[in-house]
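anyone seen this seq b4? input:
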Amino acid sequence: MESRPEESGETGDLLRLVDIRKSFGETEVLKGISLSVRHGEVIAIIGASGSGKSTLLRCVNLLETPSAGEIMFDGKPVDYRRHGATWKAAGAMKRLRTSIGMVFQSYNLWPHKTVLENVVEAPINVRRIPPADAISQGEALLESIGLAEKRNEYPSRLSGGQQQRVAIVRALAMDPKMMLFDEVTSALDPELVGEVLDLMTSLAQQGMTMLVVTHEMGFARHVSRRTAFFCDGEIAEIGPSRELLSHPRDERTGEFLSRVLHHL
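predicted toks r here
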């Protein structure tokens, strides 16, 4: 197991967001988000639906273009601004997207490809890894999550939990420096949630840097180092997870938690 950043002394920021704003028409969804994520850190993002959580993740991975603000990744600025009909730094964008894996609520697996084909598609065609090497790596990743025997199955033959674990492995096959998770358990039946959270917990223990939009408060409390509470496009409060979830300082955080944590 790799050491946590506070144990190893590695405290540099892998991702730094400064005053990120995003508007859709007249509606400002993100109202100046500033956030730094250290190497090996796990940050949980919680908040009500529509508070801007998923939009932030999509801005980090440039699936949405921020309206304003600065993004620094791995010590380098990301120039996401459009110049005419082209990207000024298309190469930088491609490197960013291959360095940051993202997993969504919907599994987004290609239904016409087998499990293994889903996993090796991007390494072969984006990273230009030799097919034999990509297949070997893909099979090892599937073995690590106990799905090696499913490598020749199509996604429709898998349970929701299995499909989501394959989606995570597909992202890991690109050897990312950071992973983004957007409510990845919310579409799963309750009995399948645990197997996905177990995989995410294992990744955290191995030192993967992670931003996790989640409604799983147990995961936020026990796995993430810090938790950020989003409200109306802003970070209302951020702090050590157990402290924030047990003793929130912002009244809005407390009101939100009183609604969702009554069962804990």
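DSSP finds ten helices and twelve strands in the chain. The two ends are 29 Å apart (CA to CA). kinda curious what u guys think
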